[in-house]
Amino acid sequence: MQKSIYTALLFIAVFFISSCSKNIQKADLIILNANIWSGNINQPHASAMAILSDSIVGIGGNEEIQKFKSQSTQIMDANGGFIVPGFIDSHVHLISGGNSLLSVELRDANTKDEFIRRIAEYAKKLEPQQWITEGNWDHTLWGGDLPQKEWIDSISKNNPVFISRLDGHMALANSAAINFAGINKNTANISGGDIIRDADGNPTGVFKDNAMSLIYDKIPALTKSQKNKSLKEALKYFASNGVTSVHDVDGLSTSIGSFEEAQKLLEADELTVRIYAANPLSEWKKLSKMQFDNNKWLKIGCLKGFVDGSLGSHTAAFKEPYTDKKDDSGFFVNSKEDLYEWISGADKANLQIMVHAIGDSAIHTLLDIYDQIISENGKKDRRLRIEHAQHISPNDIKRFSELGVIASMQPYHAIDDGRWAENLIGPERIKTTYAFNSLINSGAILSFGSDWAVAPASPIMGIYAAVTRQTLDGKNPSGWVPEQKISVDQALTTYTKNAAYASFEENIKGTLEIGKLADFVLLNQDLIKIEPSKIKDAKVLQTYVGGKKVFDIMDSGH
Fold it and tell me: Does pTM top 0.85 for this prediction?
């Protein structure tokens, strides 16, 4: 009797196991022998992963994942490679960044002569009257003198030039561009901007913040073909850097928006980066009326605005004057009244708000506005963001956590600006400049990005910057403001899990776990185990978006 019962139970068990095995989904792709950093606190590490269609169906050990294998399953041996969730860049200028890849490159021009030479060489390739834009120059590399139109007039007579400083808050125009825009010594200054003039009142060629619109508004808009070309260049660039999602702060803008062209690429199955597209904050009513079904690839619902300018252009708004210019505290590019009106209206329309604020006065004012609308409109899951949040007053650090405000920051700026920032704002204010550690310790959520094309869209370089704070000039081997360093684990989290949270998408991406999108990156180094100073040398070997390989270093010639 006992034997028959045992036999019956054994039969039932075998049948049950067999049935379960048959019901297990078979994977399209299995990755084995990997060193996986999942970002999931419940299962932080794994060695294998199974992918069906665009999602993860299994993650764990090599043996455990074998059950997802079928005859048609592709097997990838990671050979111990370091796998992380696809990097999410929380702040990019997508079309203008792509366009910069096709234009003159001035970022590392470190002398006046080199600056001029590169523009001259590029101008020779163009048709007459074709504009030269982007550029991304940095005057600190040649000693700090601002460029002037006379530097380039003789080598650009046939082409209007309007090239940006790398922070995007200052640009140089040649005489052709100035004349085309109808600007002269009698042109009035513009609120929230500045026209740099010589002793006689004539424009020198440099325009700051809102004053740049005097010329930008006259530049012919990019054609659809040009946007498409710029977008495709950007997609290749992101894939090579392991970036699988971006928050495009210009995504729905009229002139340089990526959204329309991205939709076309999605329909053609050519889109390789997921995009969260922002609309200008002042046009919040337009976004509130837009009808669009958000999907895994394209999403709208956020607004990007500005409080002030940038540190390097002396247009970031501070409570006290700049150390090197005692009569200058920067300025707001939009009034407090306008900002409140736009933010309050947008919040009532349940749109996400992300606003650029760099100087301590700008950040404090924006936190006050956020505090006010929370009080007036009631509590809800807003995920308000401050973009950059670079120079925070010590008393305002705790307010990010208290108000639930996300600090959307770009760590590469710290090792770039750290070369000269103390000369502009002094030794005291830099203590809470790019205050990554202080913000995390206060309970705030950080989301990292690049601000590309202001900085390279390389999360590896961003992680290196946040962990080491070693400035680009090599003069801070122990780190610039070293108390603000964070760990590799924290930096990875800000580029993945937190960045997904910053766009209300943490349920579908940002960590590697069952049910989430199979967006991941294979690196040649374990960023957590290697010497921090060597992080910058790590390479992206492969990038996958939705289980589909979109970059392989073996195919790129790198």
Answer: yes
